[in-house]
Design a protein that fits this description.
Strand order of the largest sheet of chain A: 5-4-13-8-9
Largest sheet of chain A: 5 strands, mixed
Number of helices of chain A: 7
Distance between the termini of chain A: 60 Å
Shape of chain A: globular
Structural class of chain A: mainly beta
Largest interface: A-B, 44 and 44 residues
Bound molecules: molybdenum atom
Radius of gyration of chain A: 21 Å
Helix content of chain A: 10-25%
Strand content of chain A: 25-35%
Oligomer: homodimer
Chain lengths: 385, 385
């Protein structure tokens, strides 16, 4: 019987998929991709691990904790390997960081014109506390010494592979990886527990402020390099283009790989199409806001009258512990006065980050063929009871 | 006669104003504020010093190069002073950096609703090569040792004062000032020559990627501190607010002082209202783009049909020498096909920076009572010959 299971496993790359929380709404099953309901998302500053969005590019690999080994190679390091116990011997470092999929909110962009990509709502984002060894400590233990100008990129390979045994891969700029305040960690815990299978068990690299796609799960190899990862996902995906570029004219070499994401926000309550009761003639609106690169959210404005009056939201949760960098999202709440007898309103939200960057009003002029970086104002239509 | 000049000087704080280039268009005379014509601006990657926009908050002070002294005081330093010769003994460091006034493009925002501030066009921005001593070297020579967590801000005072003898002042966050790659310098040269009087003779602090207002001219004092500058310009000016905040409701303590500026671009040619000749049925459009915080411009899109088709501009000038930070602006050119018999077009330009931040479409929803951070799409109406 064991033998037949083993044959079955070889035949079905999806044999090792974990059980998932029933509240997760899949946008794809194989590979598994799913997001939580918005109302659960906004309920807690720290997203529970089993409700954290799942964005898998390939089947979940079966990794044996005991035989797990992380390989380090490349420029300025000697080939080294670290098992999980080795990694746990480094000083343990925790960082609360939001991770967002580049395709979050793609379902709104699609209304302009179809795009290629999973049809994410607004919940392909989550905020967790990640703990593990600092990348820089592990590189130093591999013989890496200080900044070498040749070192430009740190590449990561996952243990997840496609049918041709090519692993998932990505890279980040060396200046992010080596920044003492960059907080890049090789995490073996998510919210105080071993990282769940869907989130990269046993080790995921956490790159705060950088698009989810570079936060490689099931981390198997680190390569110190002069060049970016040559993986499909670094070279020919996860890049932004002009709205006029289509699949006939696109040249992926012309756009930089997405790293830091732009400022974004979304309304999590009420939901699109909901019928809501006013509280003291006010509409209660809640949501999240976040910006890449560690930029803090400094203001969220909400309107229910098409921008004639904007209301500054209160921040219900904002972590100030990592100055100057704010890796975590901001949760906010606004109470909008609504004129009596109004039966329908459209609510808009927009955020401003610490560089005074703002969101664009609409998706029309940021549309791109891969449907990434969708950060236009979020607009929600509700009926008033 | 010398005595009478001296009395006149005491009576007229504007007695020391320098001669200015006749092409500069003043938005105010006392204090002097002026910008160059757009067509001259876009003509060179390095803005000639005499055409660089002038934003003075107070009268230009008369500073004697021989008796000039820069005072350093505050936390973790011993009170020190440096004359110009002392500063020139430090390693000389050059950086090509764009400086932009927070109020650049205010004249466009005013079309939504009046604001308080000088009526700048799109040329309150310029790009120059600045040379001088590194701030960090001067702090170290004053006894400053490494990062002390108490040190949060570096304050600067100008030698320019108001009628009550209060100097111009500003501050920047310590993490910017102390970042070895932050390139903050105490410049005594602009484009290879002593800094002109209007630009801060003999010493201006250059803070690349940060709003002009913190690049203090006629630098007289540096204070290492736990707190921001208490000057009017740091505390009660140069901050952004929600469009619904007016002068009755504004609370300046609620917004952070502007430091990094958001992504911006402008069309410099053709000018608003111009009549232009097509070249091979194409409209030639030129302009600049820039983003704060050292974020590189990765794309500029131009449309002449209201966004139905966007054309990706070519970069005619982009300095790649400072990776990862790009302090200098990008000059660009686009050639837009125009349908025959079209007599009028509106051209829009928008830029994207390396964090994939974009510009907002219109000024309506970024309007703020001080008219700062005006980075909506630039729109220019032209007639086709
Ligand atoms: Mo993603
Ligand atoms: Mo300014």
């Amino acid at each position: 019987e064991e033998a037949s299971v083993s044959i079955a496993d070889m035949e079905d790359p999806y044999a090792f998929e974990p059980r998932r929380h029933p509240a997760l709404k899949p946008s794809n099953l194989k590979p598994f991709n799913a997001e939580p309901p918005m109302t659960l998302l906004v309920d807690s500053f720290i997203t529970p691990s089993d409700l954290f969005y799942v964005r898998n590019h390939l089947p979940v690999p079966e990794v044996d904790e005991k035989s797990y080994s992380l390989e380090v190679s490349g420029l300025c390091v000697k080939n080294s390997s670290f098992n999980l116990e080795d990694l746990k011997k480094f000083p343990k470092y925790s960082v609360t960081a939001t991770i967002q999929c580049a395709g979050n909110r793609r379902s709104e962009m699609v209304n302009v014109k179809p795009v290629k990509g999973l049809n994410w709502g607004q919940a392909a984002i989550g905020n967790a506390t990640w703990s593990g060894a600092r990348l820089i400590d592990v590189l130093k233990a591999s013989g890496f010494k200080d900044n070498n100008l040749k070192v430009q990129h740190i590449q990561f390979e996952g243990l997840d592979t496609d049918s041709a045994h090519v692993p998932y891969g990505a890279s980040i700029p060396a200046e992010k990886a080596l920044d003492p305040r960059g907080d890049v960690i090789l995490a073996y815990e998510m919210n105080g527990q071993p990282i769940p299978k869907d989130h990269g068990f046993p080790v995921r690299v956490i790159v705060p402020g950088i698009v989810g796609a570079r936060n490689v799960k099931w981390l198997g190899r680190i390569v110190v390099s002069e060049v970016e990862s040559d993986s499909h996902w670094q070279q020919n995906d996860y890049k932004g283009f002009s709205p006029s570029v289509d699949w006939d004219t696109v040249d992926f070499s012309k756009a930089p790989a997405i790293q830091e994401l732009p400022v974004v926000s979304a309304i999590c309550e009420p939901l699109e199409g909901a019928t809501v009761k006013l509280e003291n003639n006010k509409l209660v609106v809640r949501g999240y806001a976040w910006s890449g690169g560690g930029r803090r959210i400094i203001r969220v404005d909400v309107t229910a009258d098409g921008g004639k009056t904007w209301h500054v939201a209160d921040f219900t949760d904002q972590n100030d512990s990592k100055v100057p960098y704010h890796w975590a999202w901001t949760l906010w709440k606004a109470e909008i006065p609504v004129t009596q007898n109004v039966k329908k309103v459209e609510i808009w939200a927009k955020a401003v980050d610490s560089s005074y960057n703002v969101q664009p009003e609409r998706f029309e002029n940021i549309w791109n063929l891969r449907g990434v970086c969708g950060n236009a104002y979020h607009r929600v239509n509700v009926n008033i009871k």
